[in-house]
Amino acid sequence: xxxxxxxxxxxxxxxxxxxxxxxxxxxxxxxxxxxxxxxxxxxxxxxxxxxxxxxxxxxxxxxxxxxxxxxxxxxxxxxxxxxxxxxxxxxxxxxxxxxxxxxxxxxxxxxxxxxxxxxxxxxxxxxxxxxxxx
Length: 134
Known about the structure:
Blueprint: H1 18-41, H2 43-66, H3 72-98, H4 105-129
Helix pairs in contact: 1-2, 1-4, 2-3, 3-4
C-alpha cells in the first residue's frame, strides 16, 4: 500500500502470533464471567463490572482489528489502543481486589494475566515500530 504523503509503499502490517489472539480471547471471557458475578452482586461491583468488561473485551478486539491493518502505522495504532485497554483493565482489576469487592485467587490470576498481556503488547508494538515482524 502506498503512503499518500511520500508515494512510497508502506511496509506490510505486522501479524501477531495466534497464541496472543487466543489468550486475549480467553482473558475477555474470564473477565466477562467475573463481570456477571459482580453484576449479580449489585452495588459498586455492578458499576465496576460494566467498565471492567468493556475494557477487557476491547483488548482482544483491537488485536483482532490489527490483523486486518492496512499498514504498519495502522497496525501499531490498533495495537496501541489494545495496550491502553489492557492497562485500564489491569487498573480496574486492582481496584476490585483492593476494595475487597471480589477477593479471590481468580482476581489475582486475572491481574497477573492483564500485566503479562500489557508486557506482551508493548513488546509487539516496539518490534513493529522497529520494523521487525513478531
